[in-house]
Design a protein that fits this description.
By secondary structure, the protein is an alpha/beta fold. The protein folds into 2 domains: about 5-70, Beta Barrel (OB fold (Dihydrolipoamide Acetyltransferase, E2P)), CATH 2.40.50; about 80-225, Trna Endonuclease, Chain: A, domain 1. It has helices spanning about 80-90, 145-160, 190-200, and strands at about 5-15, 20-25, 25-35, 50-55, 65-70, 75, 100-110, 110-120, 120-130, 135, 140, 165-170, 180, 205-210, 215-220, 225. The strands form 3 sheets. It has a 6-stranded mixed β-sheet with strand order 7-8-9-12-14-15. Strands 1-2-3-5-4 form a 5-stranded mixed beta barrel. Strands 10-11-13-16 form a 4-stranded mixed β-sheet. The protein starts with 5 loop residues before the first strand and ends with a strand.
């Protein structure tokens, strides 16, 4: 995926989950944070960030926070990006051979999954999770407790029992990482649910990305350690 009108800035602070103050061209600006996770290890005072100017009318903020530098690593923080790049990756033929249908936001019973895919005569449901938490090359999810994430895993297990192929895909919004694992220290219930899902036949996939300030694209599959 490609961004437009990206400019660098200096992170000042984050008054709440939805906005941050960023110095852009010497002036403090209020920007929209497109990620409601904690991101405490990323959004530290003085960090170099990359923001996108929005042309949407009637917005309170004219900028969106897209990426942040953490040491020498560039991390995309756009919570909408994982679904977009996963969809592009699937359409390019990198997920399943003989793709015949890719449909986003598909309802199943009382549930809604990120993607419904048909390929090779099989029917698949996919839930996508973006990952921005990294330490020493190990990436983890979630960075804050997520009851919604646990619910998604339980729904995938039910769909698997009904004969669908089911996936949870962790799109790691950075490159050059070692492996993925659940963040049991922050939310052990999610880790337990992920391990139960794997035993129930839900496929667990983790993919890192090639990241620039202006682009994001899935790069390769990385190891998953449960």
């Amino acid at each position: 995926m490609q961004y437009k009108t990206i400019v660098p800035g200096r992170f000042i602070d984050r008054p709440n989950r939805f906005i941050a103050h960023v110095e852009i061209d010497g002036r403090a600006q209020t920007v929209h944070v497109k990620n409601t996770g904690r991101c405490r290890e990323l959004l530290v005072p003085g960090a170099t960030v990359y923001v996108q100017h929005s042309d949407a009318p009637n917005r309170k903020t004219a900028w969106d926070l897209i990426a942040v530098e953490k040491g020498e690593r560039l991390i995309n923080m756009d919570a909408q990006a994982p679904n977009k790049v996963f969809g592009e990756w699937v359409q390019a033929g990198n997920f399943l051979p003989n793709l015949t249908l890719l449909r986003p936001e598909t309802r199943y019973g009382d549930s809604r999954f990120d993607f419904y895919v048909e390929a090779g005569g099989e029917k698949h449901f996919v839930e996508v999770k973006g990952v921005t938490l990294e330490q020493d090359g190990v990436v983890r999810f979630p960075d804050a407790p997520t009851e919604r994430g646990v619910k998604h895993l339980e729904e995938l297990m039910r769909a698997r029992q009904d004969g669908y192929e089911c996936w949870v895909c962790f799109v790691v919004q950075m490159s050059d990482v070692r492996h993925f694992e659940p963040n049991d220290a922050t939310h052990p219930q999610f880790g337990d649910a992920l391990r139960r899902a794997a035993k129930a036949g839900v496929h667990i996939l983790a993919l890192d990305c090639t990241v620039t300030a202006e682009t994001l694209a899935i790069n390769r599959e990385i190891a998953v350690r449960l």
